[in-house]
Structure formats: structure tokens, C-alpha cells
Amino acid sequence: MTVMVPATTETIADGGAILRRGGLVAFPTETVYGLGADACSDAAVARIYAAKARPRFNPLIAHVVSLEDAERQGTFSAEAARLARAFWPGPLTLVVPVAAGCSVSVLARAGLDSVALRVPAHPVAQALIAAVGRPVAAPSANRSGRISPTAAGHVRDELGDAVDLILDGGPCTVGLESTIVDCLGALRILRPGGVPREAIEAVLGRSIAAGPEPSARPVAPGQLASHYAPRAAVRLDATSAQAGEAVLDFAGRVGQGAAAAYLDLSPTGDPIEAAANLFAFLRDLDGPAVTRIAVAPIPERGLGTAINDRLRRAAALRD
Ligand code: TXA
Ligand code: MG
Question: What residues does ligand 1 touch, defined as CB less than 6 Å away?
Fold first, then answer.
């Protein structure tokens, strides 16, 4: 029986104990809710893949509380360390070579000799990881290929009894997963996310490559062409609503018209507000009566790049 409780000092301590025993705890981060397990235990990590019905070859992010802890797990180049100092705690994940003393399980790393590390900013996430005293592996707490959860209720709907405890810390403020930067060679962005590319380039003082295009054979599940998918079909760059469609608008561009359902990601055209609303609104519009969601064009600036990346995956053909 899944227990969903408000995150308090006591329930966070309970969560820490569950994780140390090899259980699964869903918890809020500033990006999306994570499905946490002890990152050092193959058995605990295996339960994540089972709960998510996720293909096993996809590696997970190990969450830690500080750059110091991250440096015990991975080797940071000067540029990787500079990004960590600029954006941690926050919505940035760095993929680095494993350090000699890396305790993150091979299963969590999917057998790779690299490790993805992140220091989340959310106080509940910080307190939970501190309570465990070890890195916490946590993918987004949704079933594989589905929309990432930005509220505790989404996690319960997605994973139900597969998780031992859900810590409710309210809605996620960023609402998009972390930006993933591959620091194994020349830096490149593997997944656009909560830290805009422009901000990363400003810190580095140079431009960097956006990783590979979405493909059917990804390094990362976030790169699967059809990912973050609602049940309804998705039509991008809509300029008006067709009969039977739900509308996901931006800055009132499309308007309600004959739409079966209507939500505006940001009536004022603010990409940060739009990112925070994205997954919850896709979920809300994805009702049984809706066969297609028409999405307004979103400008490719700031978090708009990450929003469009997620929307293209939601719109990709799938089996
Ligand atoms: O915001 C986030 O990043 C959320 C919260 C919970 O922290 N987590 C998240 O995890 O989105 P997940 O598992 O849904 O996505 C992790 C991504 C995957 O695309 C995975 O393949 C990639 O990180 N990844 C992990 N380790 C990697 C590695 N060694 N090399 C390349 N990609 C890696
Ligand atoms: Mg995910």
C-alpha cells in the first residue's frame, strides 16, 4: 500500500530509513519528482527499473548534496567543476568519468564507466539524501515513456503500489528535468532542461554543442524520439483549434475556439512559467474524450528550447 505523506522532518527521516533498507521513495526536486533508491545497491536500483518498466540499459542520475560528495563519485575537469560551482544546487546534471572510489552501483550506471551526478536544490531532496548518507539514484517518477510528474499526486497515479513512500513537497518549481551536460570529452548538451544553454555558455565564455538529435537508439531515454508521451496525439505549431482537440496554448496565440479543453502555459508569454506548467497541463488535457492536443508555437529562447524538445518527443509517432 503506497503511503503519500507531506514532507516533514519525521517523514523525511522515515524515507531515509526506507532507502537505506533498499526501498523506493518518491520525492520532490525542483525539476520533477524523482523515484529514489540507494544508488549504491544494485538490488535497490533494480526495483526502480521494475517500477518504471524502464529498459535496463538506461543509466540513472545519482543525486548528492554537494560538489565535494560528487567529487568522490566522479572526476571533474576544470570546466565541469566550473559548471558545478555555477549551477549547483540546481537543475544541472553532469556526466563525468567514474572516480576510483565511486560507490554508485554498476546497474545504476548501466555498466558505463561514467556517472551522471546532480545536486538538487529542493530542500526536501537535500534532506532526504543527507538522511541516507549515500548517493540516491532517481529517475523521474513516472512509468517509462510517460509524462514526468511535477506533483506528488502524479506519482501516485503513475506508480501506485510500486513505491514504498511518496513525500509530498508540493508542485515542482522548474517543472522540466535537469539539463544534462556530457563532460567526458568536448562538452555537449545531452538533454536540454532546467538550465538554459545560454546560461551554460555564459559561464564557460564559449559556445558548446547540443548533443545528438533524438534517435531510436539513444544513450539516454530522454533521447528516445517518443518520450514524455500523453495518450492523446499531439499536434505542434497549431494556429487554431480543430473540432475535438484540446488546446495547449502559449500567450493566448491559439485561443479557445471550439476546443474541447483549453489551458495556456503562460498567458504572459513567460517561458519559465510555461516550463513549470508543461507536464501538469499535458496531463490535465490528456482526458479520455480528447484524441489530440494542439500545441501553440513556443519561441526557441531560454527554457523554450527544452520545452520544444519535450513537445517534439510527445508528438513523435509511437507504437
Ligand atoms: O531533473 C532530473 O534530472 C530528474 C530529477 C529526478 O533529478 N531526473 C531525471 O532522471 O530526469 P531520468 O532517469 O529520467 O533521466 C536521466 C538521464 C537519462 O536520459 C540517462 O540516460 C542520462 O540521464 N544518463 C545517466 N547517466 C548517464 C551517463 N553515464 N551517460 C549518459 N547519459 C546518462
Ligand atoms: Mg524521465
Answer: 29, 31-32, 34, 58-61, 91, 93, 95, 109, 112, 114-116, 118, 120, 138-140, 177-178, 180, 190-191, 219-222
